[in-house]
Structures are given as C-alpha cells and as structure tokens.
Input
Amino acid sequence: MASASRAKIELWPKDIAYIEGAKEYAQMGLIPGGAYRNRNHVAQLLEAGNTDEMYVDLLSDPQTSGGFLAAVPEEEKMRFWKNLIKHRWKQKCRLSEK
Output
C-alpha cells in the first residue's frame, strides 16, 4: 500500500506493543525463517538507520503480521483519530502524514 502510493511509513519500534517474551526470544536469535523472507522482500525499501537489529527482526516476523494499518483520507483523519481515543486505542497508535 505504501509503495503503490509512494507514501513513507515511519515506525517507532520501542513504542510498539510486542507479544510478551518476543523481545527476549529475538535477543536470543530465535527468529522464524519467514522473518528473513519478509525482510528480504522489502530490503530495497527499508531504511532502518541505527535501529537495533532485534527490532527489525521483530517487525519482520510473520507471526506478528496481525497488526492494523489504516490509510485514511485527509478529510477523515481527525474523525478517525477521535474514534481511536473514544475506544481507548490512542495509546497503541500513531498518526502520521504522508
């Protein structure tokens, strides 16, 4: 979705909620093979900078692909954000612009 629209996605890996124990397993190097395939698939688009490899591995893990990404038209973003707040999702979300 981001590639097709030429949008940039910014993530703050330390602020993302991970499954309990996931960081510890990642630090031990217990990463499923699918994570490396996912990472290779986006390698040309990925700019990880000085992000700890553990976080890149976690965010590439196919087992955590159940996250929610929403692309909302500009004129709807505040209504969408207010609904996130209303339903107590704000602390788990980031609002970013293209």
About this structure: DSSP finds five helices and no strands in the chain. The CA atoms of residues 80 and 98 lie 16 Å apart.
